[in-house]
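[Solved] Which block belongs to which protein?

Original post:
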Amino acid sequence: MRLLQLTGGSLQSIHMRKTFEFEVDGKKREFRLGSYAILEMLSDMGIDPSDITQLFDPVNEIKSVVSFMFHSGVYHFDRLGQKPDFVRGDIYDWIDITGGFSGEFFQSFRTAMIESIGLVEKAPEEETESEGQIKKK
């Protein structure tokens, strides 16, 4: 997993209510991304909303994406007035059968999550080779 610098992002920048869909284990799964899932994830992670970029530091990133997946999936069912047909452990199974943390399901969801929070990704810069020149990774 590549490390990224994230800028922006706050509860005020959450401007999308977005649905993420992915077929996994022979079934189309729908996730409702937005403020409910974000607030539940922040609570799970013990992160203050003013420190939202901490979600993607190397220590928190995987757990925060999984937590957001879980709460986004639960919220989808809640909005339909139904009980979820999965538990948190199923999220890890879906990740495993779709290529792990570098697989398409996890990485696609991670990107949708970053967009829904209003964060901006940029590749980290390497040390300068000479004064005034920055070498990108």
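(Second protein starts here: sequence line, then its structure tokens.)
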Amino acid sequence: MRAITILILSLLLISVSSAKHEVVTMGPCRVSFDLNTTQKYTINVSKPDYGETYSGDKYVGYDLWLVNTDLRPEDTRLYQPASIYLSLFNNTTMDKSIESMKSSIGDDLSNQGIYSYETHNRIIDGQPGVIGVGEDSNGYTFLAANYWSTLTDLRDTKIQIFSLYPWKPETLSLLKTIHVELL
């Protein structure tokens, strides 16, 4: 009897701790990541967004949203707890320095109503990046991350990650496992 109980508990622990490795197509890119979560969610990818920066750099953007299927849109900000945005540039003169990424993080967080935050340098997908963390007026901790990746066909890709998931395990797992590559 004791052996059966231990076996059942072991199986429950395995199922609770297992996470789904996601592989998603975003335009000409494959994005893979693992949230290490048991929460139910779906993935929505937007149509291409064609844009131009103030300095004249043209890009194509793709947005991926995770949607919490246990909540309704009006329930809470946590209905869409994370997103990944790719900006693909054929040729850009944009500043890709850490200081520039920190400034971009500040803009991203202030757009969410977060004016007090801290930034940290971090390697993301093998590239130098920056994360910023702050709390909004409702007490939600919001994380924004930026890094640049040079893909073979497309010269530069800016990857932006936004998360309202807790740091451990979901957001940390996302940052450790994200990988962007050309199809």
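Accepted answer:
You had them paired correctly. Confirming on the second one: The chain has a mean pLDDT of 83.
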